[in-house]
Amino acid sequence: MHQVEENPRFRRAMYLMILVLLVGYIGFKAWHLSMAFEAWEGQAIAKAVPGAAK
Q1: Contacts made by residues 44-48, CB under 8 angstroms, sequence distance 24+
Q2: Other residues' Cβ atoms within 10 Å of the Cβ of residue 20
Q3: Transmembrane ranges (predicted)?
Q4: I need a labelling partner for 19 at 20 to 30 A (CA). Which of 2, 4, 50, 53 fits?
Q5: Residue 34 belongs to what domain range?
Q6: In the structure, what pLDDT confidence band is assigned to residue 15 with cuts at 50, 70 and 90?
Q7: Residues 9, 16: contact at Cβ < 8 Å?
C-alpha cells in the first residue's frame, strides 16, 4: 500500500496496465461478437424446425 501512495510512477503504471487490459478485453469481445454475428447470418436452415431460435 505504501508503494502506491509514495510512488506516482508506480501508480501511473498500474493505471496504464488497467487501461490496456480493459481496451484489450473490449477489443477481444468485439471481435468475438462480430464472429458470432457472421456465423449467425450465414446459417441456412433447410426446413422449418419447431422450437428453433432462427
Answers
A1: none
A2: 10
A3: 12-31
A4: 2
A5: 1-39
A6: very high
A7: no
